[in-house]
Amino acid sequence: MKIGKLIFFISMISFLASAYGQPSGKGTYIDVSNDFFIEYPDQWELEEGEEGVVTLYSPYEANDNGDDISDFEEKIQITPSQWDEGTLDEFVDANFNPIEWEESFSEIKITKKGKETINGKDSRWVIFTYSIDEIPMTAILYFIKNSNKIVSILAVSKTDDFEMIYKKIYLEVIRSTRSYIDSKTPNLKK
């Protein structure tokens, strides 16, 4: 009986060691010129666009017939912007005034908004809902100030999938955003 417990114990230690030794399943995207990097699930497809725009697409899922289909709605878009004119609040007011958006686009409804510090950087965020072809959608929009850059991160999904599947993933990606320069000079006094 004692030998059985010992074998079980050794098996569990081996299992845990191999599980924790596996890669984390994270990819890293670095944008040196716009001074940021993020971590994202490595099974997501990364696409670089013009002017530093990066889009992460959720992996394909299989429908009931076993065919691959694209979850094109579920994505994260990262847009860096030069901002020498002032504060983060001034950028948000100039580019995304929630009251103006709700008045201009009647289908957009702001559900929450707030402020957060992400890796030492100020950020502002808003969660809103809208529809595409009568499909309810939910989005998180973050603005993160990094020196004279603003990193805007828009993450969208179907409302039915938002809380159960995507919100946690989106927030992990958003909260992984760091300054590339700061990561290379950790002892730099500010």
Topology:
Blueprint: H1 2-20, E1 26-31, E2 36-41, E3 45-48, E4 54-57, E5 61-62, E6 68-69, E7 75-82, H2 88-95, H3 98-104, E8 109-118, E9 121-132, E10 135-146, E11 149-158, H4 159-175, H5 180-184
Antiparallel strand pairs: 1-2, 3-4, 4-7, 5-6, 7-11, 8-9, 9-10, 10-11
Give a description of the structure.
The structure is a single chain. With 190 residues, the chain is α+β, with helices and mostly antiparallel strands. It has a single domain (24-184), classed as 3-Layer(aba) Sandwich (Protein Transport Mog1p, Chain A). The chain contains 5 helices and 11 strands. The strands form 3 sheets. Strands 3-4-7-11-10-9-8 form a 7-stranded antiparallel beta sheet. Strands 1-2 form a two-stranded antiparallel ribbon. The chain has a two-stranded antiparallel sheet with strand order 5-6. The radius of gyration is 21 Å and the shape is globular. The termini are far apart. 19% of the residues are buried.
Task: Give the gist of this structure.
This protein has 190 residues and is an alpha+beta fold. Helices cover 29% and strands 40% of the residues. The protein has a single domain, classed as Mog1/PsbP, alpha/beta/alpha sandwich (Protein Transport Mog1p, Chain A, 3-Layer(aba) Sandwich).
Key traits:
single chain, 190 residues, alpha+beta, Protein Transport Mog1p, Chain A, seven-stranded antiparallel beta sheet, two-stranded antiparallel sheet, 11 strands, 29% helix
